[in-house]
Amino acid sequence: MLIHRSTKVLISKAAWCTYNTYRKGLSFPSQYSKTETLFNSSRDNILEYQRTRVRQLIQHAVQTTPYYRDLLIDIGLSHDDLTQLFSTDSTDISIIPPLEKKSIRDQLHNLLSDISPDQKRIENATGGSTGTPLKFYQDRTYWNQRNLSVYYFDRWGGWDFGEPQLVIWGAPADVNTGSRWKQKLNRYWRNQFWLDGFQLTETAMHTTFEKMRQWQPKTILAYPSSLHQFAKYLNEQNLKPNWDLKGIISSAEMLYPHYRTLAESTFGTKIYNRYGGREVGLIAMECCEGRMHINCRDIFFEIDSDDPYRIPGDILITQLNNWTMPFIRYRIGDIGRLSNERCPCGNQLPVLAELLGRSTATFRTKSGMLVHGGYFTQQFYNIEGVSQFQLIQDSFEECTLKLVINGEWTEKTCDEIVLKIQEKLGTDVSVDVKYVEEIPLSRSGKREFTISRLT
After folding, report:
1. Are residues 344 and 401 in the same domain?
2. Is there a single domain that holds both residue 163 and residue 247?
3. Dist CA 328 CA 316 (whole Å)
4. CA-to-CA distance for 54 and 175, rounded, in angstroms?
5. Could you tell me if 248 and 271 are in contact, meaning their C-beta atoms sit under 8 angstroms apart?
6. Does residue 268 belong to any structural domain of this protein?
7. What CATH number does residue 144 fall under?
8. Which one of 113, 117, 361, 369 is separated from 220 by 20 to 30 angstroms, measured CA to CA?
């Protein structure tokens, strides 16, 4: 068993090297070395690299895309003004209006670079968890650079090339890729075993755990909600991993505190939270000290707020590597807040102090106060009578609370939850409680616990 396991790791390591050499060229080892050097360098070096890349990207976008050429005229910015914009050490690009999802849908082809050949464009789309999927284009250079950064950050979470990994995922674009034999081959050389986040039946979870016992993955990559469901099942069945895990990487959803607590106690290892988007790649990753560092190599990160270090605001992302379809100050749909601290882990990448989740999952009161969706999910911690829940803010005056309940549910519990909701949103807010058989996953496979129609 040990010989087979070690041989498999060697095979997978060789496969990773072969794959990356094919995708990124013979210079892959040197490219990855340069990636590590930049991420581990001083704050000044990192920010100087960013300024250069932002300047190059904006100049490319203005020269080669109809959308940004027209935008330059609309805002009255000349090429001389654009040069002046980057003549200092600052990278203030706030004069450029944010790129909205509606603009991408309406101006899809005008956002494409004139010098990007059709055959090199790779079509992609979001999962559509908050509405209609958003279509956009990337290219192989974008994916190569994205992967180099992912490799670097995932190693913070214990992953390494070729080592066995359990993947608990649900995005259709990732789960349903190609034919069955291609899926099996792809997962074999990567040394991954997949548990479909759409199909978390007791049989599937039990089979996966037995497979884990034999295979002993070093890391887990998972949707937080699916990881929580798996950990909850293992606890209920009194099944405990009897091998050492290096870490768990959570991604694609909000990692709530009770998710983290249960998973870390069940698997006996730390969770490293990863934040990203299909449109722009990896945005930030949690380090060993629990701080979320921003991926300055691939993105320029802004908070749309008068005081981004104290007041949360919409996150704006400028993707530095996708020159086929430049995204400049893209409003990704999440809310966050920056930190000006230097992390005790020693890495000098800037820190994202708070990630408050989707703007569509953040509630607003009449007074203008933002209420993080996590406040509402906390009210359901350890309530035995609730199997599933979803809170929807229909207006400033009305909310809908959908509940899937079990035999432990009482009307007293219902009254207490409604009171907690009204304490935050206002005592005059009406909460319509609806008991349902099931709350389906979104089309992207993600669980939506809070939805605000106002945002």
Report:
1. no
2. yes
3. 8
4. 34
5. yes
6. yes
7. 3.40.50.980
8. 361
Domain span at 400: 363-452
Are the C-beta atoms of 167 and 190 separated by less than 8 Å? no
- Give me the number of domains the chain comprises: 2
292 is written with which tokens? Answer: 């979320």
Q: Cα separation of 217 and 158, whole Å?
A: 11
| Same domain flag for 367 and 350 | no
Domain end marker among 329, 359, 389: 359
pTM (2 d.p.) = 0.83
Question: Token digits for 248?
Answer: 């768990």
